[in-house]
Amino acid sequence: MLTIYAFAPHIAQQSAVFYGIIISMKTAQTIPESVVATLWSYDMSELDLERDKELIIYNVLNYGTAEATEWLSDTYDTKDIRAIIENTPQSAWDKKSIALWSLIYDVTPSAKRRVVV
Fold first, then answer.
1. Is residue 1 part of a domain?
2. Which of 50, 67, 48, 61 is nearest to 87 (CA)?
3. In the 8-state DSSP scheme, what is residue 114?
4. Which residue in 64, 72, 95, 97 has the fewest CB atoms around it within 10 Å?
5. Is residue 117 part of a domain?
6. Which structural domain range is residue 24 located in?
7. CA atoms of 41 and 63, how far apart (whole Å)
8. Cα separation of 37 and 53, whole Å?
């Protein structure tokens, strides 16, 4: 097994990089570099595809490339993606991203939540 440390030293400690694909040693999950780019502020060695699916789906839909969104639709069920779009407040989304994904998945995010005092 080849571990490349030049890619990202914080990732290389518990992960290996093969041709731009991160493989987490902890969970043995494969996450393409295009998806990793949308999760720049998270420790990839700690992410779990099932446990962190809301975070992953939200970030890929908001910041991902075509390659990342293809991986997303191959990895997660449409029902899960629709539920995350619907249950995330509209104010959390990039306006152009949510306009696109609302049309594609035929779902509307929840209304902006207000705190009444």
1. no
2. 61
3. -
4. 95
5. no
6. 9-105
7. 13
8. 16
The alpha carbon torsion through 67, 72, 73, 79 (nearest 10 deg) reads -160
* Coil vs helix vs strand at 92: helix
Q: Which amino acid, one-letter code, is at 98?
A: I
**Count of Cβ atoms closer than 10 Å to residue 93 Cβ:** 18
Asked whether residue 2 is assigned to any structural domain, the reply reads: no
In a domain, 3, yes or no: no
Mean pLDDT of successive 10-residue stretches along the chain, which has 117 residues: 39 47 52 92 89 95 96 96 93 92 92 58
Q: Tokens 């779009």 identify what position?
A: 85
Residue type, 109: P
Q: How far is the C-alpha of 97 from the C-alpha of 58, rounded, in Å?
A: 10
Q: What is the pLDDT of residues 29-48, one digit of tens each?
A: 688 999 999 998 998 888 89
- The angle formed by the CA atoms of residues 79, 75 and 104, to the nearest 5 degrees, is 50
Q: What is the CA radius of gyration of the chain?
A: 16
The total of structural domains in the chain comes to 1
